[in-house]
Amino acid sequence: MSILVTGGAGYIGGHVVRLLLERGDEVVVVDDLSSGSASRIRGAKLVQLDLSDTGRRAELVETLRANDVTAVIHFAAKKQVGESVLRPAWYYEQNVGALAGLLLALEEVGVRDLVFSSSAAVYGATPSGLLDEETPTRPINPYGATKLIGEQMLAAIAQTGTIRATSLRYFNVAGAGWPELADTAVLNLVPMVFERLDRHEAPRIFGDDYPTADGTCIRDYVHVLDLARAHLAALDTTSEGHRVFNVGTGTGSSVREMIDAILEASGADIEPVVEARRPGDPAEVVADVGLIERELGWRAKLGLREIVESAWAAHVRA
């Protein structure tokens, strides 16, 4: 197979590219390298291109044709919630506009199969508990809204028979499949704790009075390597229309459990500090993963310990 991976030089994309190359697929990466690194994708062909630049769509079409692309995995997007609130129009241009341009190019060339990087952010401020794919989608920020619009675009186009699409709604992604593919963006809990430890500062816990076993929020943390394998499962089990799957473990871990695991892996002797709750944080958000297990045969294999130990080993190597 010849697979085009947009945003393949990023954290999650780099893991998917590595797995595709290891199994013998030809891989072409389209990435503007605004946050990714070419060093992550050695062995793949790189085309440096901003998908939101409508003036370069002909180049994208030519890339698809010249490489006989048979399927696309679409990661390329901006993903900072706070930034999306400050720059909503730009986020719609980057995330929705770029996807629209990609779909037009696929239509022109006749490539039908696409796997879309979506997010549990489409659910928004949901009630605490287990979320399945039928949970109402009410995103509360422009980032989440762009992901939901992306899913809606795919569903509409799939009805025409032009594409067969799968949207994967990620929960909390962490860890590293290989040390050189670490998450270097300080946007999620694990790298945020690492950054504070590097500065000899105590990790922060936002609220310890939630109705959970230890009072801290519970989230579903999925290892990035498991997530990458979910993309290959989606790619290999295409079907007509548009499918949506949660990607998580189905098991929650509390913020305190995660921080304790990080402190143990790092050997740091420092007590976390508890601060006030952040507005809008639900007590517990965990993926119901029954659908992806039944339809794609995928299940997460790695747990909290593997996530933390792999992330710390990658951090130390950096």
What does this structure look like?
With 318 residues, the chain is of the alpha/beta class. The protein has two domains: 2-173 and 223-247, Rossmann fold, CATH 3.40.50; 174-220 and 250-317, UDP-galactose 4-epimerase, domain 1, CATH 3.90.25.10. Helix content is 39%, strand content 20%. It has ten helices and 15 strands. It has helices at 11-22, 57-66, 81-86, 88-109, 142-158, 189-198, 224-236, 255-266, 290-296, 304-317, and strands at residues 2-6, 26-31, 45-48, 71-74, 113-119, 129-131, 164-170, 172-174, 204-206, 218-219, 221-223, 241-247, 253-254, 273-275, 284-287. A seven-stranded parallel beta sheet has the order 3-2-1-4-5-7-12, sandwiched between helices. Strands 6-15-10-13 form a four-stranded mixed beta sheet. Helix 1 links the parallel strand 1 (2-6) and strand 2. The longest helix has 22 residues, at 88-109. It is globular and about 55 Å long. The model has no long low-confidence stretch (mean pLDDT 94).
